[in-house]
Design brief:
This is 20 kDa chaperonin, chloroplastic. One of its GO terms (molecular function) is ATP binding. InterPro entries: Chaperonin_GroES, Chaprnonin_Cpn10_CS. This protein is an all-beta fold and 99 residues long. The chain has strands at 13-18, 40-46, 49-51, 57-59, 67-69, 76-80, 83-89, 95-97. The protein is globular and about 55 Å long. The termini are far apart.
C-alpha cells in the first residue's frame, strides 16, 4: 500500500492520533498496561464542516491540537507518513479534554 505524507479530511471528518498510555512513571516505576485503555487522542487535521438537511452550514466542533475523548469502538484506521491514525466524524467524540 502506498504511503501518503498528508491527509486532509473532508466535511465533518477529523484525523486523530491516539495518545500513548505511559508504561512507566517519571521515577521509573513500571505500570501495568494490560487493562488500561486510553480513549483520548489529539486532532491532527480537520474538515471544514458540512451542510445539514436544511442546507445550513454546520462547522465542526473541534480544532487542530484539541485533545478529545474517543468512543470505545469506531474510527477508520489509516496510515499517513508511517503513523497509524484514525478518522472519526466530529459527532463521534464524547468530549474535549483540557488541563
Amino acid at each position: 500500500m502506498q504511503q501518503f505524507k498528508r491527509l486532509v479530511p473532508l466535511m465533518n471528518r477529523v484525523l486523530i492520533k491516539k495518545l500513548e498510555v505511559p508504561n512507566k512513571t517519571q521515577s521509573g516505576i513500571l505500570l501495568n498496561t494490560g487493562d488500561t485503555k486510553n480513549p483520548a487522542g489529539v486532532v491532527i487535521e480537520a474538515g471544514e464542516g458540512y451542510y445539514d438537511h436544511k442546507g445550513d452550514f454546520v462547522k465542526i466542533c473541534v480544532k487542530i491540537g484539541d485533545t478529545v475523548l474517543l468512543p470505545e469502538f469506531g474510527g477508520q484506521k489509516v496510515n499517513v507518513s508511517g503513523q497509524e491514525l484514525l478518522i472519526f466524524r466530529d459527532t463521534d467524540f464524547l468530549g474535549i479534554l483540557s488541563r
